[in-house]
Write a structure and sequence with these properties.
NADPH binds at residue 58. Pathway: Amino-acid biosynthesis; L-proline biosynthesis; L-proline from L-glutamate 5-semialdehyde: step 1/1. Helices cover 53% and strands 13% of the residues. It is an alpha/beta fold and 268 residues long. The chain folds into two domains: 6-160, NAD(P)-binding Rossmann-like Domain (Rossmann fold); 169-267, Orthogonal Bundle (ProC C-terminal domain-like fold). It has an eight-stranded mixed β-sheet, sandwiched between helices. It starts with 5 loop residues before the first strand and ends with a helix.
Length: 268
Amino acid sequence: MTSKNIAILGGGNLGSSIAKGLVKSGLMTPQQITITNLDLELIQHLHDEDGFNITTDNISAINGAQIVIIAVKPTAARALLNQVKDALGNGEHVVISVISGIKIHDLEEILGDMPIIRAMPNTAIAIQESMTALSFNEKGLTYKQEVSEIFNQLGSTMVIPEAQMPAATVLASCGIAFALRFLRAASQGGIEIGFSSKLSLEIAAQIMKGASKLIIENNSHPEPEIDKVTTPLGVTIKSLNKMEYEGFSSSLIQGVVAGYNKILETES
């Protein structure tokens, strides 16, 4: 367990997921985490149900913490950064930004020369199953091991050049939505062939879990695993070929690339 306190500026889905994941991992207690939001009612449940400190005052949250995670929406980022820059300028804080599209250089221009890390997790961080990409500025590298250990408690991490952060955002963060859309479609197909909605969803979810573990635990590639279940003249290959004919892989690839291009447009 770490002895440091964390302030999470922005108690939305991602900010609250990070807080819950840190507590669930045993790395921190709720009392070590302060979550902020302009509307206290929106995060009141995080105090009442989970025991986190909550406030509307970003400055007081920062003053009580050593690590500051900025988790507001990109449209609100610059206003918040300008509001808190003086509180972060005393050299006592490490800033971790999970704001999509805001580069380290942008953060340095507002906050000055201080340890800054960009992190791109996904919402599975709440159950310690995130895939989190990390990029560090020069001063932030001093905290590379400490920050990596924090996010390793919340799933898997990869340290990448910041130039790859747009790709990580689409594949690792948005990818949760892509996987869940497949899950929904598979369960709807299950309903059409006779399963109840509840049972169909349960089957589809377990399929995704099993498929992922086959790749991760066996250090395998999807194609050999697919070959194991595609017998000649069989049902699986018939189904797969129909999906490919209808554009299954192509549409997914195009969706990933479209998201990537959207990020590049936003950042340019």
